[in-house]
Amino acid sequence: MRTFIIILCILLAAVVAVAVYLVVTTPKEAVPLRFPLTAAQQELLGHVPEDAEAYALVPAPVVLMARLESNPITREPVTRWAAEHPLPPAAMLGRADAVAWKSDKTTAYAVRFDPVRALIARAWTMFSSADAAWHGQVLIIGAERRAGFSPPGELALANGLPEGDIFVVQRKESRGAFPPMGRPAVTSVKVTSELIEMTSRASADGGGGLKPALRFDLPRGAMLAVSFTEPPRLLGDLERLIASDVEALVGQGGVIALYGVDTGTLLPRPFGAIVVPASEESRAAAAKYGQVLGDVRESGGQLVIPFDRNSAAQYLNDAKAPAPWPANRWALRMDPARLIPVLRKAGDNPALRFAAPRIYRGARDLRRWMGTLEQASSVEAAASANGGVEELRVRVASK
Q1: What's the rounded Cα separation, in Å, for the pair 260 and 338?
Q2: How confident is the prediction for the chain on average, in pLDDT?
Q3: 316 SS3 class
Q4: For residues 62 and 28, is the Cβ–Cβ distance under 8 A?
């Protein structure tokens, strides 16, 4: 009996010791990902199979989940996802690094545990029906096919990215509205209770030659304001909506400020203004279409060409702010609370689909990746190309 009690006490002490270890070593903060990645992180990414369409690396997922749940923008979708994909207790994961990937519409995971948690997880897998396999202290859940066990080639694009909490890679086969650039694309994501910041990179078409820096500030009161160094392709569709040769006005770059949209007409009617540098060429182009577009104003070396009678004065009286980051392609600022309802209606407008297909597709793409941003107070973005690399930076602020 005495021996039994001694053995029971030893087992109880061991259980308590393990429990204390799990609690004490469960992190409240995580070391952010820095680029280039460490050798251990690159080794973990070697478990991603060659046929994966996209993958993501997360250090200390328990810390990330806490941040996502504290941010009003991500709280609801994360809660919904967690209800459909139950996670192990935070103490079980601890400081584990994890990588998830998607192949053939299925998602698989690789999680690297510390030695103590690896023993506990091994015991769990013995009695679990999960499709699990072990490679040392790395637990693989889901089908692992053709893993190269070497760092993926896309990591070269990531060198120099700002530090973040998630590293996401979308390969050539990946499709999606975000980021709006070629594939493969790499993204560093940083999450706090108030902000989400994303920096994405991809190889630039045509070598990504150096372009002049943006020279226009953005109006704060517009629902959407975009500055650019060369006309976006969707301006060809805008000509159909306002019956004017818009590209002739903005060939040297400019700003489009959108203050409202009448979605109750057959084709949506925009209320806003185009702003371009004042020059002999732009004055001549503006005079040609002034009666169609509205009263052209000139102020501070700029021409303000409105789509309606009121937007020129609204733009001139609006407070201005520079682009959020230095950029040489385009920059934007948008108000999701005002813009998302417009996107929902424009994305379902059959007349817009045929009359202005680029604007229609753009509205649907924006609606897809902004659908969860109704709790955001602002979205800012800037895009540049240099040295054959295109970079997009996005900041989403919560209310």
Answers
A1: 8
A2: 81
A3: helix
A4: no
What residue type is 179 in one-letter code? P
**Can you give the pTM of this predicted structure?**
0.85
Let me know: does 201 contact 158? Beta carbons within 8 Å: yes
35: which 2 tokens? 């680029």
- Quote the pLDDT of residue 208: 45
Phi, psi (5° rounding) for residue 393? Answer: -120, 135
Residue 104 carries which DSSP code?
T
Partners of residue 190 on adjacent β-strands: 197
- What six digits make up the tokens of 342? 């417009």
- Alpha-carbon gap, residue 311 to 269, rounded angstroms: 13
Take residue 303 and report the two structure tokens written for it.
Answer: 């021409």
pLDDT tens digits for 41-57? 999 998 888 888 999 99
pLDDT tens for residues 78-135? Answer: 888 777 766 667 667 778 889 999 887 788 888 898 888 888 778 777 766 667 788 8
Location of structure tokens 């280039």: 36
The burial of 240, by beta-carbon neighbours within 10 Å (0-12 exposed, 13-18 middle, 19 or more buried), is given as middle
The residues, ordered by sequence, that sit 6+ positions from 139 with a Cβ below 8 Å of its Cβ are 109, 110, 111, 112, 113, 118, 121, 125, 132, 133
Can you tell me whether residue 153 is helix, strand or coil? helix
